[in-house]
Every structure is written in C-alpha cells, then in structure tokens.
Design goal:
The protein is α/β, with parallel strands linked by helices and 457 residues long. The protein contains 17 helices and 19 strands. Helix content is 33%, strand content 18%. The termini are far apart. Iron/sulfur cluster binds next to helix 12. Keywords: 4Fe-4S, Amino-acid biosynthesis, Branched-chain amino acid biosynthesis, Iron, Iron-sulfur, Isomerase, Leucine biosynthesis, Lyase, Metal-binding.
Amino acid sequence: MPWTLYEKLWDAHVVAEAGDKALLYIDRHLLHEVSTPQSFQALREDGLQVRRPDTQLAVADHSVPTHDRGGAIADPQAAAQIALLERNCAHFGIEYLALAGEDQGIVHVIGPEQGFTLPGITLVCGDSHTSTHGAFGALAFGVGASECGTVMATQTLWQAKARTLRVTFTGKLQPGVSAKDMALAFVGIVGASGATGYAVEYAGEAVEALSMEGRMTVCNMTIEAGARTGLVAPDAKTFAYVHGRSRAPRGLAWEQAVAAWRALPSDADAKFDREIVIDASEIAPQVTFGTSPDQVMPIGGSLPGGDKLAKAMRYMDVHAGDLIEGLGIDHAFIGSCTNGRIEDLRSAAAVIRGGHVAPGVRALVVPGSMRVKAQAEAEGLDTLFTQAGFEWREPGCSLCVAMNDDRLPPGARCASTSNRNFEGRQGVGARTHLMSPAMVAAAAIAGRIVDVREVLV
Ligand SMILES: CC(C)[C@H](C(=O)O)[C@@H](O)C(=O)O
Ligand code: SF4
C-alpha cells in the first residue's frame, strides 16, 4: 500500500496500540524554562528518573534578557525560572545550553542548527511551535507539561493518529515574496482552526525551491492553522543542511541514516485525506490586520469588514475599506522561531540599502540563536543594522511573546516577523502586524507598512 510521509513516520514509532491510540516512541525531547517546571516536579513527586537523558536537550529562551547578557537577570521571576531549569537539568542529568554559551538560542532554532533535529525521528517539546522541526521530515509536535514529564520518564507518549492534508504550492514565488508569505497565505486560506486534527505535508515546486530556513518558517506556522504537525519531505537540500552539524551522525552512521531517510518521502500514489493547492506565483507579500494570524491580507488590498472582525479591528484601530499599505508603525521586530534565522536576517538587511529607521520608530533585531548571531556578525550584518538605526540584541524569544523585558507600550503598532498577533502578545494594548523580515525592514525604514517589492526594484 502506498504511504504518506506522515504514515511512514508514525508506523516506524508505534510501540503498542489500544483503540484509536498508539504508544509512540519519542526519539528526542527539547526543553525550555516555561513549560517544564511542573514536568520536573512530577518526576520528583513520583520518584522517577529520566529514562534517556542523552535524548534530551534544554535551553532557556522565552524569558531571557536580550541585552547586557552575562550579568544578573534583573527580572526576579525570569531569573528564578531560568535558574530552576538549570538546577533541574543538573539534577536529572540533562544537557543544558548555558545562557552565556555559544549554543544558546530559541529552542526551535538551536535544534536544527545543531543537528539535534533529524529526518525520520519523533521530536517533542512543551511548545506549540515544535511543528518547525517537521521541515526536516521529522514527526515533531508540541506537547503539554505533563506529557513532557511522561516523555522524560518513559520515552513514549499515547497519541491519536491525525488525518493527512497535503498543501501543494505550485509555481514560483515572485521576487520579494518569501516563505513567511506562503505560511500566512496558507493560514489565511484555511483559517486558524481549519487544519485542526490534520498532519500537514507541504509539497510542490515552491516548497522544493525553499531553503531549509524557509521550510522551517512554513512548518513553524502550521500550528496557526490548528495542525500540530507540519512536514516537508527530506531531500538533497535537507541532507546537505544536516551534514556535518555538531550532533548529526557521522561516517558510516551518516551513510546509513541517509539511506533510510531517502525512503521517507510520500509514495507517488499515496492518498491524503484532504488536498489544497495554492499557486505560489499569485502570492503577494502578506500582512495581518487583526488579532489572529488568519486575519491576513495581501499588501495592496483594502481592509475587510463585517461583524466577525469588528472586535479585532477595534483593538487594532483599523477600519473597513482602508488600505493596509501606508499604515504608520512605531515599532519593528525582526526575530523569533519563525524568522530569526540567518537567511531572515540577510533578507531584512538586503532591504536597508543605505536607508535609516524612520524617526519615531524603534526597531529590534533579535537573532534566533548565538550561532545565528555569530554568523550574522561574521557577515557584517550587525553593523549594517546598527548603522541603519536598528538595535542588535542577544538571542531569545523577546518581542514575539513579551515574557522578558522586551515589551511594547499600550497603543504601540508593531511590524513583526513573529507568528502570533493575539491581543496583548507584544505587551498590553499593543498591536501586532505579522509579515516577512523584508517587509518589516521596509516598514521600519519607511515608518509605515509598504510593499517591499517596490523597495527592491
Ligand atoms: C510559552 C510556550 C509554552 C508557548 C507555546 O506553546 O507556543 C510560546 O512559545 C508561544 O509561542 O506562545
Ligand atoms: S519565538 Fe515566539 S513562537 Fe517561538 S517559541 Fe519563542 S515565544 Fe514561542
């Protein structure tokens, strides 16, 4: 029988079955400071050990400060949370990537860049954007705090199998349009819960053409359409990206792994429960106008109306019939696990072209990891950004979630490369417009939302 990539990954990890659920073997577990305190507490209370510490990797990212790294952390709650993760890891023998070290970063950025994320594996994390890792052809999904504890103690999880949805992006992206626009367009078409219960496989010419960074951006936002898993079939690009990374297999083990990974892509005649086709050449740069990622529109369009959108549009202080293009902003954020990788920083930097952040705009660039930061600095991107008036920060989730001291004031309007524009996400009363890194950089310089395609000509 022909199988999809999801079915192959699922089948390879089933340990036992009962009713409509399967006990899956979990190969890898990523941990961060926000979702694990109760998991460790539960292990302690039940007198349990971590079954395979070698399959776990922990890092602090959500509440870490993005400036003055190295000294004491000013926010006592953040300091306590980070210290607790460090202590828990030491106690249970789990590797912790130090805040001051060269490998720290957002959990979904460090996994892939260190070769911890591999094709063919199951990977979980107490974080909804774990779907990111599916870009490698890994079965990766976010879990709750109690499930993190179960994984640590047993290396398994009971799961219900998802239905399969293939999203085929045909054609080629226009210049100035990126993976982020594909992701936002998909979420806009399907809706914020339109893919709930599905494992999404992204396919087609425009997905094959994406870099691994771009594929991660697309898979990252899968959860914004309600699906816990987003997948891309591993190919030569995937193997080239993984090859030689610090935690990736080497030598004979590498050869054997690649041979197995080559069998993962969906069979040619595999059946999906649902199919969606999107013409990538028709996608314009996308901008969200509301308080849910599916409240999104192409630049150049005018704002929709209707009762369903009224509350969101009131919060956002935008009005039906107006253009989104030209809307003034006072903050810009380039970063997050969606768009904090090197390619994102390069595409933002390419838009600067001698320009300067507009008066009255505060713009932050927060690399996704220390390795991304080092790479960007080696390329001189930090100088480009700072000379143009952007702040160059230390890695962390930062303004994606405002759990550290990067926070916007009420009424602020921010062009942001992150993935969620919920009410208050970047600070109480602050307004978030999601868009690509190139669009955010262009908005920062113009002081208003603009069409990056016009900046790039
Ligand atoms: C704090 C964490 C559990 C949360 C998530 O699950 O995604 C956060 O990363 C987010 O993006 O909202
Ligand atoms: S960068 Fe944002 S979306 Fe990603 S893990 Fe951090 S808070 Fe969640």
